[in-house]
């Protein structure tokens, strides 16, 4: 522009000056024109001086060429008669010519004053006139006005771009722009310096761009600062940061001790500031940055998430931490001691489960031994042979969440004494049980069975072991060994069992006893294992326990005595058995018992029987022995005869009156009915054997001479009549099938009762009873026919009703003797 202003007018000026020179001035030496060029800046509204040579020329002329035009127009000229200011000068400010020079002074420069000023000056020198062309290029500069900032977006989102413009009303270019940022902390930094471009491009805006902005515009004239403008970068939320107080981090995340107060602080950078929401295991629990849990509990373990939200941008970010609440296990550690390495060593087990994190455990008294320390459960192997009986081991447990040390202890001890063996059998000897035990001890001992050859039998068990075998005679004489092992006892202990079938012996295999006495049968059991008892069986092969009154058992270590009480010759004789059976065999031996009857006592006869007074209330009775024999006593029987017959009737029962000692030979019978008629008899007894009754006699009245003879004859007649009658009866009875009518005639059909009372031998059951009775009985008894008629001392107890005694006894005695 300057060049264009300055370059064009040379020819024009020349043309302008030629007529002027030709008209008045004599040009002595045309020579060469001198050109000088200067550039001057002025500031609008102020003043400037445009110089035209150092001295005042003789003639000069100022011309002005407006920029953009070719026309040169005169502003001032002075041909020697003072400067003449042209009208044009009014447009160029307050233009004056400095006196004594050709320089122009322009005040209050308007913009329009800008252009090329040409001063054509002519000097009349001794060497001739000299022509100078002074070109003065005047620029009118405009100072920058106070700039202002225009932002394309005053709240840009981080990462986007924005433009800031530094706006200016006026100011001559080029303008230099300096962008300053003042942070929140009032620190001023120069962000950019841009030459002649008022735009400041912020690509990729970030939060650090937030702050006050100023632009400083400067040009050749001045510089101006804008007011500050706030740039607010919108961003976030960033990934939140969670601070846990108290702070405790483990490889699993954060940890807290139970019952502590735990505070979770969430921070996420964001503009506008974040809104915070807390989640526990995905459910919302709190709103706000700081979530505090007072007295945290183990159930509060879990995932805590902080969600930060930028409500303006509707963006969010989230961070999750794991918080583990530490708590100690319940109770105390548990100590356990177990055998190991085949019962040679001890395993010390310590367990304390449940806490978080695992509790630390330590066995003492071990120091600096790695395997005696650990967590939750630890096992320490302790050599059995290095361990004394009753050693105590302590396990100590500690936990971060507890100041207390909890412990448990265990004492190892060996079982007392020696292992004990025994054998027994199940009921009925089905199974044989071999029992071995070694009681006590901690840990418990291992017990197992082997045969005598060393083969293990069954399984091994702790403390006690029962080997069950099916009973078999093959085990008789076999030995079984029980082994027992405990870690504290170096040697394996043993005990031995030998099985043996019972063996029975008796001192006497045949026993004899008089009836009525007790007898003791004895049996000895030897070599009997497992132990069993002797059982007794009577002569009927019945177990004696079934009749506790009859049999009494006495047991001692090896023998058992069976007492048979009040032996009876008929029922108690025979073979008894003593028997013993255990699981490996059995034995029984017979013992013969013979119960002997006492011999028949002697026969008797009544020597005297008489009322001792007329009152007929007391009778004196004397008797004497007829034969030799042993006896133990007598008894007297009475029969009351019916009135007035005064004749013996078989239906009238005998009534026993008294038992007498064997030395008695006389007895007084008192309290009789004076009007009654009586018959008496006396019988001797030898223990249980009852002798034959004496003859039956009725008492005589006290002395009255003929009386006894008459009575005796009458009685004798009666007896003979009775005999005849009875013989007839017997005949009828025996031949009742041949003469039924006769039988019925005499006895009648309904009269069977009386027949029963007669008790004839035919009505007894023949056979075995007959045979047994015969044994050991004195007198002939070989033929069955004779036995009917033969007298026999009966074994009937004396307390049988006397009426049962048949009358025929008396008769047969008389007949046979
Ligand atoms: C800028 O220049 C124009 C024209 O010259 C003038 O009218 C205006 O007042 C100036 N503005 C300032 C602030 O100087
Ligand atoms: C600023 O951005 C505008 C428009 O996008 C572009 O014209 C100008 O050249 C850029 N200025 C700078 C210094 O990059
Ligand atoms: C913001 O400034 C800080 C500190 O001066 C710096 O560490 C960080 O990297 C900056 N951020 C960006 C996005 O430039
Ligand atoms: C929360 O989650 C943790 C980890 O999955 C779990 O152990 C805990 O029981 C949960 N808590 C509740 C109350 O569901
Ligand atoms: C365990 O000990 C017993 C006796 O001490 C022995 O017979 C057995 O072979 C041992 N077992 C092992 C596996 O060592
Ligand atoms: C071991 O100690 C226990 C208990 O004091 C005792 O009963 C046992 O007999 C002892 N054993 C040995 C082998 O000393
Ligand atoms: C059992 O019998 C034996 C042999 O006869 C005898 O030695 C022992 O004393 C008897 N025992 C009793 C309690 O009678």
Write the layout of secondary structure elements.
Elements (H helix, E strand, L loop, with lengths): L1 H6 L2 H15 L9 E10 L4 E3 L8 E7 L6 E7 L5 E2 L8 E4 L6 E4 L7 E11 L2 E14 L6 E4 L10 E6 L8 E7 L5 E8 L3 E4 L8 E8 L4 E3 L3 E3 L9 E5 L3 E2 L2 E5 L4 E6 L7 E6 L2 E5 L2 E4 L8 E9 L4 E12 L7 E7 L4 E7 L8 E5 L8 E3 L1 E7 L7 E9 L2 E11 L7 E6 L5 E7 L8 E6 L4 E7 L1 E7 L8 E7 L7 E6 L4 E3 L4 E5 L4 E8 L8 E3 L13 E5 L3 E6 L9 E9 L2 E12 L7 E8 L7 E7 L7 E9 L12 E7 L5 E4 L7 E10 L2 E5 L12 H29 L5 H8 L4 H7 L9 H7 L9 H6 L18 H9 L1
Parallel strand pairs: 1-9, 20-26, 42-48
Antiparallel strand pairs: 2-7, 3-4, 3-8, 4-5, 6-7, 8-9, 10-11, 11-14, 12-13, 12-15, 15-16, 15-17, 18-21, 19-20, 21-24, 22-23, 22-25, 25-26, 27-28, 28-31, 29-30, 29-32, 32-33, 34-35, 35-38, 36-37, 36-39, 39-40, 41-43, 43-46, 44-47, 45-46, 47-48, 49-50, 50-53, 51-52, 51-54, 54-55
The chain binds 2-acetamido-2-deoxy-beta-D-glucopyranose (7 copies).
Characterise the protein shown here.
The chain is mainly beta and 817 residues long. It has eight domains: 2-141, Sandwich (Immunoglobulin-like); 148-231, Sandwich (Immunoglobulin-like), CATH 2.60.40.10; 241-326, Immunoglobulins (Immunoglobulin-like, Sandwich); 334-412, Immunoglobulin-like (Sandwich), CATH 2.60.40.10; 420-473 and 480-495, Immunoglobulin-like (Sandwich), CATH 2.60.40; 501-591, Sandwich (Immunoglobulin-like), CATH 2.60.40; 604-690, Sandwich (Immunoglobulin-like); 712-760 and 784-817, no CATH class. The chain is 11% helix and 43% strand. It is built from eight helices and 55 strands. It has a six-stranded mixed sheet. Strands 19-20-26-25-22-23 form a six-stranded mixed sheet, with no helix packed on it. Strands 12, 13, 15, 16 and 17 form a five-stranded antiparallel sheet that branches. The N and C termini lie far apart (204 Å). The model is unreliable at 1-25 and 750-817 (pLDDT under 50). The structure holds 2-acetamido-2-deoxy-beta-D-glucopyranose (7 copies). One 2-acetamido-2-deoxy-beta-D-glucopyranose is lined by residues 206, 208.
